[in-house]
Amino acid sequence: xxxxxxxxxxxxxxxxxxxxxxxxxxxxxxxxxxxxxxxxxxxxxxxxxxxxxxxxxxxxxxxxxxxxxxxxxxxxxxxxxxxxxxxxxxxxxxxxxxxxxxxxxxxxxxxxxxxxxxxxxxxxxxxxxxxxxxxxxxxxxxxxxxxxxxxxxxxxxxxxxxxxxxxxxxxxxxxxxxxxxxxxxxxxxxxxxxxxxxxxxxxxxxxxxxxxxxxxxxxxxxxxxxxxxxxxxxxxxxxxxxxxxxxxxxxxxxxxxx
Length: 258
Ligand code: 0WE
What we know:
Elements: E1 12-16, H1 24-34, E2 38-43, H2 48-57, E3 62-65, H3 71-85, E4 90-93, H4 112-133, E5 141-147, H5 159-180, E6 184-191, H6 205-215, H7 224-235, E7 246-249
Parallel strand pairs: 1-2, 1-4, 2-3, 4-5, 5-6, 6-7
The structure holds ligand 0WE.
């Protein structure tokens, strides 16, 4: 049995969604790098100065700016990775966005443009990434997206992001069917709430963290590292029989009814 130290030796991973050191994508990058994977990052250009030092720590051999609302930029990210590496084994999607004003108040008031934006950035981008990554996964591969329980149950204020995550989870299943014959697995992690760049500044978030910890069987909140360890499993050959799956990393919260 190989050790975690070389579980991903010789594998190459493209990671989308590092904003800073609290990003889930950053923890996953560290975990995959520690397991021996070669890392490539695609980041939002305005975040370059924050991301480049992290790219350096991951010894990233690819670092490419990418606005995931643009097909050409997603295509370019995989063109750059393909030119550098020739092949790809792992894709990590840890990207989401909704307008701030659409994450409070009544869901029924979500404007068409806010709905479009949330589903475009948070769900469609995974489809476009899968299309770019699949041709590079010549020996098969693993694609992973991040979801949240708000996809399947209503969570106050999560609103249009819940609809976007429901869409993302469905995309995982359809992509798993399309790509399965090419030995490409597609899964999502549904993470419990964590304080990250995306969750900071959401009103009532701290209260929510406390309530979740109280109700969760494990009586605590999860960490980015908890997510990253499950991500390592799903990206590795240990999960060779797992695809189309939504894997909860939430200290058991989702199995409770009260
Ligand atoms: O998916 C998320 C957060 C996604 C997110 C967060 C923001 C905040 C800043 C997407 N877009 C934006 N846009 C912004 O302008 N989570 C799972 C974390 C989260 O966000 C919530 C939650 C939880 C949990 C929002 C409301 C209620 C609960």
